[in-house]
Specification:
Elements (H helix, E strand, L loop, with lengths): L2 H11 L12 E4 L9 E4 L4 H10 L3 E4 L16 H7 L3 E4 L2 H5 L4 H9 L2 E5 L7 E4 L6 H12 L5 E3 L8 E7 L4 H6 L4 E6 L2 H9 L3 E4 L2 H5 L3 H7 L6 E3 L10
Parallel strand pairs: 2-3, 2-11, 3-4, 8-9, 9-10
Antiparallel strand pairs: 1-4, 5-6, 6-8, 7-10
Length: about 250
Amino acid sequence: MRILDILARLEEHYPTALACEWDNVGLLAGDGEAACTGIQLALDVTDAAIDQAVRNGANLIVTHHPVIFRPIKALTPLQPVYRAVQRGLAIISFHTNLDIAAGGVNDCLAAAVGVTGCAPLCADGLGRVGTPHRVCGPADYARHVRQCLGAGGVRCAPGSRTVQRVAICSGAGGDLVDAAVAAGADTLLVGEAKYSEFLYARQRDVTLIAAGHYATEVVVLPALKEVLAGTGPIFLTDEQDVEVFL
């Protein structure tokens, strides 16, 4: 299969038309007409992903975070895209379209923590809101999330209410407190949040849990592997979260 055929397979499940207008998704580096010798799946184009792709004989890295996001004015060896192309690798990145699409990051996160009956949280399709695995207190729910995601730790601003309806947004999402309130949620689970967003969540009496950007998004990689099954050798990048709780 060509690399463009891999792109087409991904497009069937996570259409690039769903991506936010500010995003940068699709084939971002490399020759789409080249035959695909293997696929390395990763959240980011890191040294580990590049090295493992080369070692595995894969010439395509598929990531969630775009390897090129802001305009590039110069290419140097410090940039991952430079190092990847130098080693003959193509890169496909599916970002907000992978967040929004059915079966994408947010659905995988909901499944991982046991949130069911999900509907989109925002009008653009970002986030999910649904019913937790059981009714419990905020602290117990934060511990449940940590265990389910294998997170090194979680940050939590507990509200006064029991957890009965959960809004989720993988990665950054601390600015969605009002959206959670509008959806009738008492709890908002995100990857990361600012101090001011924790303060605002407390003001709105919403339990805000930040479980880490990596931990809330790495859950999608097995789903990507399943979608790409049959296209050739597929490898998951062996890499740890960069945030370490000591």
